[in-house]
Amino acid sequence: MGFTKLLFFLTYMKDIFGIIHQVKELNLIWILKGQKVPIENANKLDRTVFLLMFGPCLIAVVSYNVLPMVRNTVVCLVFGEPFPFLLVFDVNFFYDTRKVPAYTLTYLIQCYNCYLTAFLNLLIDTTFFGICMNICAHFEILKIVIHDLEVKEFVEYHQKVLNLAKHINRLFNPIIFGEYLVLSVLFCVLALEAGLSENFFDFIPILFHGIASLLDLMIYSYGGQKIMDCASEICKDCYNVDSNYLIIMLRTKRELKIESMMYHAALPMCSLIMGRTMSLITLMKSFL
């Protein structure tokens, strides 16, 4: 999944920065008009989620990278056995990794790949969440200014926000599909690894990897659910204004979903995946 996200970022980097620029422009317009509270709240939540994700992600990565070297050192110095040449990932290479400098270079490359994958995931996931929260902030502003704007101005603003939501849906479509598909399998694998781990030190990276992955799933589910709810809530406010807003009421009755193929980003989907994970774990245990 990390390689897929790297490819996604390099391919759609211009589009991602384009959306961020559009959001910033829209934010600036309404901050100058005095509607800065919803935007500030959205950005505050985004920063909080980033910090919540950063902690488990960092601990998981450091654990995966440091524990093999700790084991190497303990086996060699404490037990007096030959250096075991353990790597971050136990992979068979076409060259002998039990020799220096091949072992050193392989270990460093694996560490680098681990850090790159983890923090690129963090960057893309929190970017998606931040854009979602800013879009929701503008839906909140729409509810506040519905009595103050002319119908034409309100419709144009509403359409801009809808277009942003549709754009992020199209752009992140493959990532959302891959995220839900991979995480549904990853939770099973991590649970089995935790059950088969022989000591506490094996359990540490698995635990924090699981926490980071669960937060990852929640980011997409909550972001998609929040957009869907905020887009639908405008309809309730349109009942309190004149009949010129009928077309907006009709539009807001259609759910605005962040979706991809058989998945759509929402909290019920998060619950469904966790439920299926438990069933898959039980099934996989029966084969062991």
Automatic annotation (TrEMBL):
<feature type="transmembrane region" description="Helical">
    <location>
        <begin position="261"/>
        <end position="284"/>
    </location>
</feature>
<feature type="transmembrane region" description="Helical">
    <location>
        <begin position="48"/>
        <end position="67"/>
    </location>
</feature>
<keyword id="KW-0716">Sensory transduction</keyword>
<dbReference type="Pfam" id="PF02949">
    <property type="entry name" value="7tm_6"/>
</dbReference>
<keyword id="KW-0552">Olfaction</keyword>
<keyword id="KW-0675">Receptor</keyword>
<protein>
    <recommendedName>
        <fullName>Odorant receptor</fullName>
    </recommendedName>
</protein>
<feature type="transmembrane region" description="Helical">
    <location>
        <begin position="204"/>
        <end position="223"/>
    </location>
</feature>
<keyword id="KW-0472">Membrane</keyword>
<dbReference type="GO" id="GO:0004984">
    <property type="term" value="F:olfactory receptor activity"/>
</dbReference>
<feature type="transmembrane region" description="Helical">
    <location>
        <begin position="74"/>
        <end position="95"/>
    </location>
</feature>
<dbReference type="GO" id="GO:0005886">
    <property type="term" value="C:plasma membrane"/>
</dbReference>
<keyword id="KW-1133">Transmembrane helix</keyword>
<feature type="transmembrane region" description="Helical">
    <location>
        <begin position="171"/>
        <end position="192"/>
    </location>
</feature>
<keyword id="KW-0807">Transducer</keyword>
<dbReference type="GO" id="GO:0005549">
    <property type="term" value="F:odorant binding"/>
</dbReference>
<keyword id="KW-1003">Cell membrane</keyword>
<dbReference type="GO" id="GO:0007165">
    <property type="term" value="P:signal transduction"/>
</dbReference>
<feature type="transmembrane region" description="Helical">
    <location>
        <begin position="115"/>
        <end position="137"/>
    </location>
</feature>
<keyword id="KW-0812">Transmembrane</keyword>
<dbReference type="InterPro" id="IPR004117">
    <property type="entry name" value="7tm6_olfct_rcpt"/>
</dbReference>
